[in-house]
Write a structure and sequence with these properties.
Layout lengths: L2 E12 L7 E3 L2 E3 L1 E11 L4 E6 L3 H4 L3 H16 L7 H8 L6 H19 L3 H4 L9 E2 L1 E4 L4 H14 L3 E5 L5 H15 L4 E5 L6 H13 L2 E5 L7 H10 L4 E3 L6 H9 L5 E4 L1 H4 L2 H13 L3 E4 L6 H13 L14 H4 L15 E2 L22
Parallel strand pairs: 7-8, 8-9, 9-10, 10-11, 11-12, 12-13
Antiparallel strand pairs: 1-4, 2-3, 4-5, 6-14
Helix pairs in contact: 3-4, 6-7, 8-9, 10-12
The chain binds magnesium ion (MG).
Amino acid sequence: MKITRIETVPVTVPVDRRVGKVENTKGFRFQSHLLMVFIHTDAEIEGVGEVTASPDWSGETSLGAKTLIDQHLAPRLIGEDPRRIRHCMDRLAKTFANPFAKAGLEMALFDILGKSLGTPVYQLLGGAVRAGLLPLRFAVMPVGPVESADVSRRMAQEGFRTIKLKVGHDPLEYDIERLRLVREAIGPDVRITVDANGGWSVNDAILAAPYLEEYGVLFVEQPVHRLDLEGLAEVRRRTRLPVMADESVFTVQDAVRCIQLRAADIISVYPGKNGGLLNTLTIAALAEAAGVHCAIGSNLEWDVGSAAMAHACAAISNICVERYAADIIGAMFHTERAIETPLITTPAHVNIPHGPGLGVIVNRQARGIAPG
Ligand SMILES: [Mg+2]
């Protein structure tokens, strides 16, 4: 089997304002600009992938990823056998960074391999270690204290057992007040995690810690800047709170350094950020060997990216979804679906797709993902 053509289609999808505003470092975001990738073969099997581009997150944009793939990455894959996934990814490795673009291509390669064998991607990753529904955690954006409490209450009533509160955008006292009201609104049994997205100093995190403990916060995610792994390690040493590294760990090398510095109790992983499922497998294995847990994070994927995350969860035991609910909530944050069978059919849970490949059938009429 040979790759004959790689098609890249930019798509803009509205974020559902009823669910929540989506905050990035420059303000609220009401649209996701994504790139759908279709790899065509001479065997009439087509693979699909998603580039969940976000300039604030990885420095990538959908149009930048399109140019990169069209001009630099696709030519290295045309004529190759798409089932040789590691070989194909090695051919892309020479290009620095751009993890989401590479992951989008790798998703499509896995989709093709799975379809060619009539088996779901999680089987190709070693087989399922868990079945059934994956519990999700709902992210509450840095809106006001009362609105945060209202959204949290509504989501807890809808079935979410973990609420993730975005902090670090406002003064500490303001975040603590939000936390207090959210805890009051959802009661003692629903878990709360906080994600500062690097918005705190080491000192802020140390000052916040007693309050986070008082309100029963399960762990603090990325308290300090993504490049400050030493600072992350210091927060971990000087507080009793478990620390999750998210933005600090994109690559396998980041994970090695994070583990060496003992900077995190938990590493957030997912195929887009890691530059593909193969890297996610490696990071999860390194972490497991070092006694560090992993959890599935998110960059607000649409449906195809979300499916790839569900396969990773299904196949990787060290992605501890039973303990740390999954962030695969992009499928409910967008107003339109890219696929024919929705991934979320039970509130607060995501399904593991069981069809061949990624197990999703893309609706090419959705949002103008027109046939190329
Ligand atoms: Mg995060």
